Amino acid sequence: MNATIEMNPSSQDPARHALQAVEGVLQRINYRTGEFKMVTAGKVWYFKLDPNCRLFFDDKEAILRCFHPLDPVRVVFQPAPENHRAHALYAWEKVYA
Predict the structure, then answer these.
(1) Cα 72 off chain centre by
(2) Which structural domain range is residue 47 located in?
(3) Which is it for the CA torsion 64, 93, 7, 39, positive or negative?
(4) Residue 11 CA to its chain's centroid (Å)
């Protein structure tokens, strides 16, 4: 899932303020620096947590240590040239069929 959310629709350049969302699987997390890497179909993404980032695990507020490699996640982020800025991180228990 990729989506765009307008933060300030009256802005001259809306793409500059747009948040995007992507779903994938966590690959690596640096708890000390707040950086993480996730994988989607065909792409590797690099993120740094925004100081006001909201973290949720199974619809409950969480801390970064609740997230682990191989967790399925959804990240709401602001694009940046190097590490995208994560504004929200959602994870949920894996469901096995």
Answers:
(1) 11
(2) 2-91
(3) positive
(4) 24
